[in-house]
Structures are given as C-alpha cells and as structure tokens.
C-alpha cells in the first residue's frame, strides 16, 4: 500500500489553458516532454508559464530504472529532423531558457550525442539571446561523444546521479555511479564554459550519512549546481517510497551542500532537475 502524501506534496491537477496549449503544440510538432512522460508533479505549473523540458531521441528508454515512469524497450530510429522541430516549438513558446533531455539510448554508438549537439547549435544560431541547458545520460563513458556535446556550447551541462550509490544496484542496475562522477568531472574540467549540474532524489531508503557522502563526492568533482527532491512513486509497480522528508530537512541538506562549495542549490520536496531552472541559472 503506497504511503499517503503529506500536505506539502499535494499540488492541483493541471487544467489551465496554457497547459492545454503547450501539450497541443508538442503533439502537433511530434515532440515529447519529460514533464509528461515522467509524470512530474510540477507539470501544470511549468506548462502554465509556457515552459517544458524537451525529451529528444524518442520516448522509449533502453534502460529500466525502478523509479522512472518513462517507457522502456527497443527504441525507434533516430529522427534526424527533430532539432528543427524543437527550435520551432521554442520559438512558438517564446522561450529564452531551453532545457533538453533525452531517454537513454544505449543502442546508439554515441548515445545520441549528435542530436544533442545539433539541437544546441541550432538553438544558439536561431535564438542567439537564449540559454540552453542539457540533461544528458552517461553515454556509457564515450568521452568523444561528451566532447561533441560540450563543443556545441550548452550553457549548463547536467547529469543526474539520481540516487545514492548504495541504491544503484537495486534502482538503476544499468547505471554506474563512478562513471557518472567521471562524466561530471570531465565536463567541469574541460575548456568549455558550461556550468556543471547534477541532482538526486531522497526518500528511497537512503540514510542521512549516505546523502552527506554523496554531497562530498559531487563536490569533489567540482559540480557547481545541484537539485535535491523528494522521490514520488509513479505507480504501484515502481519502487516504494521509504520516507517523506519535511521541507526543513531539505533546507538542512541545502545548507550542507552550500557549505561544501556548491554555487547553486535548489532543494525541496517538489524540486526536479529543471524546476525553475531559468531563475537559478
């Protein structure tokens, strides 16, 4: 039986006109948003303000993490025209801060890096006063692919560790904690000017000591921005919630992260990777 959500996690159902318009635009342009695929609790708020985190490379992931609501299985072919439609959607929504993520595509040699890079380059060309944040998978350690993305010039390079390392085997067995840290280290030490960012969820069964140790690890690879949010079980078939952290506990972890040298920390029950990303960038 799923735990009952505390009051601070209850949000109104999305039913605004802006919500319908954003969803309709994405459907017309055959684009996906991680907001819808992952059942983000902030979807109504973000859509109301004309914001969406674009999900490229399809909506079928080659991995099956036990906390994630994005569909998994054999993905379809790469849509080479997707970057152009993405720019069309950004222009229609009049966005100046664009967040792009993707499903994990372990079936592709470069993990989808070329589509990421082309999307960034096209956005920077067509919307020169815009800023681009990308949330990328681990690319299976293909550092040439990472270099291709960084060369395209994203303003923020995000890669989420998602959970404490002790839960990787149960929750994301196809992931690799050390590999994720190395990706962030390389992204932060390169010649590009991208800000490095990561994020994780709590409430899956981790201890306070594991959370603090994770903060130490991210600080050690010079990750400069961080998001911390409450895990919410998408369906009864997903990993159950072990604990609901109170808002004041999230504030405590925010202070712990700031004390370790992070420049920007957004920590709260409803926080997700791209929540108010433009403001905090």
Briefly summarize what is shown.
The chain has helices at 17-28, 34-37, 43-48, 82-93, 113-126, 143-152, 168-171, 177-189, 208-220, 247-259, 277-280; strands spanning 32-33, 53-56, 60-61, 71-72, 97-102, 131-135, 156-158, 195-202, 225-230, 264-268. The chain is of the alpha/beta class. The protein has a single domain, classed as TIM Barrel (Alpha-Beta Barrel).
What does this structure look like?
By secondary structure, this protein is an alpha/beta fold. The chain has one domain: TIM Barrel. It has eleven helices and ten strands. The strands form two sheets. It has an eight-stranded mixed sheet. A two-stranded parallel sheet has the order 3-4. α5 (113-126) links the parallel β5 and β6 (131-135). α4 (82-93) crosses α5 and α5 (113-126) runs parallel beside α6 (143-152). The longest helix is centred in the middle third of the chain and has 14 residues, at 113-126. It is globular, with a radius of gyration of 18 Å. The model has no long low-confidence stretch (mean pLDDT 87).
């Amino acid at each position: 039986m799923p735990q009952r959500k505390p009051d601070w996690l209850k949000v109104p159902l999305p039913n605004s006109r802006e919500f319908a318009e954003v969803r309709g635009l994405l459907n017309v342009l055959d684009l996906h948003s991680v907001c819808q695929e992952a059942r983000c609790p902030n979807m109504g708020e973000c859509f109301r303000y004309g914001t969406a985190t674009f999900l490229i490379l399809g909506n079928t992931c080659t991995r099956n993490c036990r906390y994630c609501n994005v569909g998994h299985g054999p993905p379809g072919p790469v849509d080479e025209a997707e970057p152009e439609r993405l720019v069309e959607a950004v222009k229609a929504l009049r966005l100046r801060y664009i967040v792009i993520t993707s499903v994990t595509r372990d079936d592709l040699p470069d993990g989808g890096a070329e589509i990421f890079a082309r999307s960034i380059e096209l956005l920077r060309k067509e919307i020169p006063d815009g800023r681009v944040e990308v949330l990328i998978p681990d690319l299976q350690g293909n550092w040439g692919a990472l270099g291709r993305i960084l060369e395209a010039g994203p303003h923020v390079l995000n890669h989420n560790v998602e959970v404490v390392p002790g839960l990787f085997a149960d929750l994301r067995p196809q992931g690799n904690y050390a590999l994720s840290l190395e990706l962030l280290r390389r992204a932060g030490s390169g010649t590009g000017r991208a800000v490095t960012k990561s994020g994780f969820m709590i409430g899956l069964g981790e201890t306070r000591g594991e959370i603090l140790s994770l903060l130490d690890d991210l600080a050690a690879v010079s990750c400069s921005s961080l998001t911390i949010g409450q895990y919410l079980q998408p369906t009864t078939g997903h990993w159950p919630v072990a604990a609901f952290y109170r808002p004041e506990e999230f504030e405590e972890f925010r202070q712990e992260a700031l004390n370790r040298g992070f420049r920007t920390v957004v920590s709260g029950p409803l926080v997700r990777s791209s929540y108010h990303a433009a403001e905090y960038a």
